[in-house]
Amino acid sequence: MPDRLDVSHSNYDGDGLRSLAPPGWVHSAVYTDPKIFDLEMERIFHTGWLYIGHESEIAKTGEFKRRQMGRQPVIFVRGQDGVIRVLLNRCRHRGAVVCEVDEGRDNFFRCWYHGWTYSNAGELVSVSGPEGYGPSFDARENGLTPVPRVENYRGFIFAALSENVIPLEEYLGGAARMIDILIDAAPGGELSVRAGYNRTTYKGNWKQVGMDGYHPLFVHASVLATWERDADSGHSLGATHSANPFSFDGISETRDFGHGHTMLDFREHRLKHGGKLRSLLENTPGGKDYIEALYAEHDSAWADLLLAMAGDPHVGVFPNLQLINNQIRIVNPVSVDETEVVMFPVLFARASTEINALRLRQHESFYGPAGSGSSDDAEIFERVQLGLGANLDPWINISRGMERERVESDGTIVGHISDEVPQRAQMSQWLAMMADKPADGRQ
Amino acid sequence: MSTAAAAAADFGDTSLFTASKDSQAIMPGSEFFGEIEAFLYFEAELMDSHAYDSWHALWEPGGLYWVPCNHADLDPNQSVSIIYEHTDQLGDRIFRLKDKRMHSQSPKSRLIRIISNISVTTSGASDILVFSNFILGEARAGQQQSLFGRATHRLKQGPDGFKIAGKKVYLINNDAPMRNVTFLL
């Protein structure tokens, strides 16, 4: 263990930040110090790529959703011109939010403070009492501020508040092919993210919502007991987890794709044990058509994998997106010790009502504020946040598997499912964004 | 075949919570109204005191326990709920609540609920629809939260009293970030 590091007077320069994360360790200040949180907002959430939403959420012109990019409230909207934009939710006049509801469909956003009105493409279309502004006032320069970078990976919309980010596909790297496991599991590649969401909150740091294959046997022991009692429990969510993929002598893996993107990789395990899911589908109305569609659209090896994985890549895209089981999950940091997690169940636009209802029921059984899994996760995250208060011994140990991980030819780091490869990946990207001199020359 | 696909047939059976056209209001103060009121207080006491098996025993087999999400009323076939369970899945919830490894209830929540604004309609002798409002206070691990909601009970009157054929719980904050609600609602 490194020596105790008293950070109470640290100014967190590059070296100071690096000293908080020596290989295999994290200082608890990374999870508890509001000064670190402020730096994370600027250097991670107000700079790099963030997942905003799926294009199907705003399939129709004028549809909009409120989203959050760090501390910036934004509007995710499809304009009358059909273009998807991400706009700061702030009137260009005196700063009030112009969109006061979570979602809807409208032609205009109006600020009800003084009546300035914007189109759903963000243009300023009306100023009350325009004669009060001189000839130099140009409405075209006073539209809602667009977020500078918006890119689309197969329907997944990401945005960045800095111009100077690498292209999205380069950022996603090897994680993109894993996102395909969800997209391609939908016939025609057509996802429908219009089934609402569960919003949960816990009093703990946002980085705790990582990808962790070491915890289920303990945190989710009561759920695993229900699956052992009855394999159909939880609407057979356990069908994708049959034969304990988390066992210490099992073949599941953890992966680090770079840029902090990680995966609990159940591919080999599920290909070996995936028969049960297939029979569940075959016995669900529309299931045979669904299976046929997968094999018609994809080569049989990929279709085999899609079916075994049930559209669940179990992948995390740094810093705020996870694709786990039937859901897209957004992680919103609220403060150093408060986090909001929004879970969007994903339906397949061209699958039967019964298959989609089954996806919803599976999701609800484990996730959301009353689900069997999320609630125990939230409880443990709160226990961690409390425990980290004991910072006379400030070090968190994330070294598990360091001596047995391997590196593949493309640079992907691979470990056992129970190894802390994802935790180290997260900290590595954290350090790169927080402490290293960024490419665009910011300090 | 698995219970999941079997249950799929009655997904979306939310007509349970709508009064039929021929239903009649039961007047407050009547003996029957008093019996319903007493049943709601009894159920509340079982939930507040974590009497899981006794509460589960109030249910009619196949009954539907529904806590919608984001709105008061949605098609659960197309929209996510907070809880959408028939009594077999409810059995899993009870099983876990009694398991010491359900961390979110270790320690247990201390609960008090106040039930009011009760209205009752019936259609025939055994088909009863009850609306009530509630305030539920939870204290746990040094924190406190208040939940406000409206419950709809579909009750059947049988030889050994009322049974719950359906219960819908609309929480008014169901579109907001929520802390755990792993106790009985």
Compose a concise summary of this entry.
The complex is a heterodimer of chains A (443) and B (185). With 443 residues, chain A is α+β, with helices and mostly antiparallel strands. Chain A is built from 14 helices and 23 strands.
Assign the CATH superfamily of the largest domain in chain A. Answer: Naphthalene 1,2-dioxygenase Alpha Subunit, Chain A, domain 1
Tell me the total number of β-strands of chain A. Answer: 23
**Gyration radius of chain A, to the nearest Å?**
23 Å
| Shape label of chain B | globular
Structural class of chain A: alpha+beta
Count of helical stretches of chain A: 14
CATH hierarchy class name of the largest domain in chain A: Alpha Beta
Rounded to the nearest angstrom, the radius of gyration of chain B is: 16 Å
> Strand order, biggest sheet of chain B?
1-4-5-6-7-2-3
Tally the beta strands of chain B: 7
Helix content of chain A: 25-40%
Q: Share of helix among residues of chain B?
A: 10-25%
Number of domains of chain A: 2
Strand order of the largest sheet of chain A: 13-19-18-17-16-15-14-23-22
Overview of the structural elements:
The complex is a heterodimer of chains A (443) and B (185). With 443 residues, chain A is of the alpha+beta class. Helices cover 28% and strands 23% of the residues of chain A. Chain A folds into 2 domains: 106 residues, 3-layer Sandwich (Rieske Iron-sulfur Protein), CATH 2.102.10; 261 residues, Naphthalene 1,2-dioxygenase Alpha Subunit, Chain A, domain 1, CATH 3.90.380. In chain A, a hairpin with a 2-residue loop joins strand 14 and strand 15. The radius of gyration of chain A is 23 Å and the shape is globular. The two termini of chain A are 31 Å apart. With 185 residues, chain B is α+β, with helices and mostly antiparallel strands. Chain B is 22% helix and 40% strand. Chain B has 4 helices and 7 strands. Chain B has a 7-stranded mixed β-sheet. The interface between A and B is large, with 51 and 45 residues.
